[in-house]
Design a protein that fits this description.
The chain is mainly alpha-helical. Helix content is about 80%, strand content about 0%. The protein has one domain (about 1-104): 23S rRNA-intervening sequence (de novo design (two linked rop proteins), Up-down Bundle). The protein has helices spanning about 1-10, 20-40, 45-70, 80-104. The longest helix has 27 residues, at about 45-70. The two termini are about 25 Å apart.
Amino acid sequence: MDLGEATYRATRAFPDDEKFGLRMQLRRAAVSVASNIAEGHGRINRREYARFVLIARGSLKEAETQILIAQRLSYLNADDATLLSSLVTRVNQLLTGLKRRLRQ
């Protein structure tokens, strides 16, 4: 959820012509990470939960790519880019641990 919140804050400064472009794609991908984890947690068994963790990881990689594109286009300032990148790294670590735990 921290990634989703930070993403919304950081993308407020994107150009107006990105309102329905990269800004929305990045926001959706970041929010999708937490949403998929929550949806998986609500499933009946661990196997389904693990599947949603993998979907969350895909959304995380999508967000990571979009962050890099936003950096290259100078839509993100250095502080926001650093924060989002560090959150992506941390969430990736958490997802890896959760996936491992669900396999036990």
